């Protein structure tokens, strides 16, 4: 059963206006002590012995039919009379019906010694708020998730001529208001971990994710579910496949309109497989996903 929580949306906007200042220097908890200095990271990487992990993320069973949300642009009373639109569930899985491959899954390694890792080679991350969605742009990638080296800055910008607010939680904690379009700002991320991005002004379907780490062994599966992690030092690791859950854990309603103003989803799903990579080895793995891993089966879908 969903847990419904009624919140006063107008009051939250007042709080937002007082805490989300025009600059990018809002309060954040002090950064954790670094585990490695910049000079130490990758100092022991040996390209001559590095190997490759590759594979495919495959969906087993029926492909889930995830309904969209029907709502006006904003739950506030000033928008309640506007036409309703259909908004996609941001965590609906993208599954190729022919290959059964899962696109956009995040695949990464745990247990890597940053000193033995290859140098960081992911492009900088830019967060764009456009078309009432959060776009995580990184090189040629435009999706819902990206990878940030601990201590690097991300760029954030709104591309719409309306009020946006980016709410950041998890390994980073701040809210940034964007009253105007095309006003670029930056924010440094100093903590390793998972960062959730969402709207702070009622666009409840907007979501994005950032993975902050000291090593670069992160990738996305392609349209057929294939992935590759190159230049991995030999050793024993955990291969992790991460995908957000599309099932709701809670929803908050506007007190005046009874429309959804915020959603909380169930925790993301991780599939963990132990791997041992020998020097210069290319190893192929298969990762299986199915609907039973998502949602709370005690309560139903």
Task: Describe what this molecule looks like in 3D.
This protein is mainly beta and 301 residues long. It has a single domain (3-22, 42-293), classed as Immunoglobulin-like (Sandwich). Helices cover 4% and strands 45% of the residues. The chain is built from 1 helix and 24 strands. The protein has one helix at residues 9-19, and strands at 3-7, 51-59, 69-71, 85-87, 94-95, 102-103, 106-110, 125-130, 133-138, 141-143, 145-149, 153-158, 164-170, 174-178, 185-188, 193-199, 207-213, 218-220, 226-232, 235-243, 248-254, 260-265, 269-277, 282-289. The strands form 7 sheets. A 5-stranded mixed beta sheet has the order 10-9-8-12-15, with no helix packed on it. Strands 11-17-16-13-14 form a 5-stranded mixed beta sheet, covered by helices on one side. A hairpin with a 5-residue loop joins strand 21 and strand 22. It starts with a strand and ends in a 12-residue tail after the last strand.
Tell me the distance between the termini: 9 Å
- What percentage of amino acids are in beta strands? 35-45%
Kindly name the structural category: mainly beta
How many discrete domains? 1
Shape: globular
What is the architecture at the second tier of CATH? Sandwich
Largest beta-sheet details: 5 strands, mixed
CATH superfamily: Cupredoxins -  blue copper proteins
SSE order in H/E notation?
A: EHEEEEEEEEEEEEEEEEEEEEEEE
């Amino acid at each position: 059963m969903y847990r419904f929580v009624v919140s006063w949306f107008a009051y939250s906007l007042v709080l937002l206006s007082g805490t989300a200042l025009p600059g990018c220097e809002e309060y954040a908890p002090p950064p954790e002590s670094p585990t490695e200095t910049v000079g130490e990271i990758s100092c022991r990487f040996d390209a001559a012995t590095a190997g490759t992990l590759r594979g495919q993320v495959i969906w087993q069973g029926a492909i889930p039919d995830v309904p969209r949300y029907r709502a006006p642009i904003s739950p506030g009373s000033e928008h309640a009379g506007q036409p309703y639109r259909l908004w996609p569930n941001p965590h609906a899985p993208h599954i190729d019906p022919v290959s059964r491959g899962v696109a956009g899954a995040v695949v990464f390694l745990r247990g890597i010694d940053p000193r033995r890792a290859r140098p960081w080679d992911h492009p900088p991350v830019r967060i764009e708020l456009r078309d009432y969605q959060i776009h995580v742009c990184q090189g040629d990638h435009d999706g819902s998730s990206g990878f940030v080296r601990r201590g690097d800055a991300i760029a954030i910008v709104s591309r719409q001529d309306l009020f946006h607010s980016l709410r950041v939680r998890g390994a980073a904690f701040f809210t940034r208001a964007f009253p105007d379009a095309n006003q670029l700002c930056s924010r440094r991320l100093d903590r390793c971990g998972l960062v959730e991005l969402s709207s702070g002004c009622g666009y409840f379907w907007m979501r994005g994710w950032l993975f902050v780490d000291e090593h670069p062994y992160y990738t996305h599966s392609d349209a057929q579910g294939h992935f590759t992690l190159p230049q991995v030092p030999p050793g024993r690791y955990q291969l992790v496949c991460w995908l957000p859950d599309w099932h709701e854990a809670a929803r908050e309603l506007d007190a005046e309109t009874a429309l959804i103003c915020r959603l909380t989803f169930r925790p993301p799903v991780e599939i963990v497989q132990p791997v041992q990579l020998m020097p210069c080895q290319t190893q192929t793995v298969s990762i299986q996903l199915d609907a039973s891993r998502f949602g709370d089966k005690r309560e139903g879908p």
